[in-house]
Automatic annotation (TrEMBL):
The keyword Cytoplasm is assigned to this record: yes
PANTHER family xref list: TRIOSEPHOSPHATE ISOMERASE (PTHR21139)
Superkingdom, taxonomy of origin: Bacteria
Binding partners and assembly: Homodimer.
A Pfam family that the UniProt record links to this protein: TIM
Species of origin: Candidatus Kerfeldbacteria bacterium RIFCSPHIGHO2_02_FULL_42_14
Swiss-Prot/TrEMBL keywords: Cytoplasm, Gluconeogenesis, Glycolysis, Isomerase
Protein name: Triosephosphate isomerase
GO molecular function: triose-phosphate isomerase activity
Protein encoded by which gene: tpiA
Keyword Magnesium: no
Amino acid sequence: MTAKIYVANWKMNVPARESIEQYIGHLKKFRVPANTHIIIAPPFPYLPLVARLIKKSRLEIAAQNVHWETEGTFTGEVSAKMLQRFGVHFVIIGHSERRRDFYETDAIINRKLRIVVHTRLTPILCIGETAAQRKRGETRKIILTQLRRALQGIRNPRVIIAYEPVWAIGTGINAQPTQVQQVHVLIRSWLTRKYTKKNTIPILYGGSAAAHNSHSFMQQPDIDGLLVGGASLSSQQFRNIIQT
Ligand code: 13P
């Protein structure tokens, strides 16, 4: 059975109405079902604190970014090895905000994936089309191109894919669960061809996921979890998303 995965991507935010200690404390009280991962992705400076707070719990942490080299003259950057030393197991790569604002190309994303896999961390690879691309009927082409370029040369299938249609991120506009399911089937069949017939690579959905819609997404057979932005800034809302 594919694991269920819920990721709280805080982006460049901290929880709005509670301290980080309260937030983690609240989630720690929650009994995490078997074969379920609950992953918190805070900004870099909060990783050591979150790593300390989640000790002796089933919660896990992710970084939101990484550099493709192990060390060197890269002002402002953080390596996979450094993240690993702080107990990070997952790294978000290729988020559309980084593609858009930091000009991350598929080639850069591929280099980041390689170092993350090499360091034995698990990448959470984000892919997704823009509204204009969907309108032009290019969703399939964009998704397959992003997958192929990002995963070029990656033989180890220990990755997580997050389908995040750009038009649904932070907009309150949800993709329809059946629309998402269609894209997930496309991703799954590509992954099955590339890696393994017994496909256990989790595919998450992200884009205005919240407690009121998480159930309808999670009912789809090929949606294995959610990558949550805004609604993950409240421990109560994030818990509700997982519980429903
Ligand atoms: P929202 O949940 O705020 O739409 O953000 C989604 C996202 O980008 C998660 O990585």
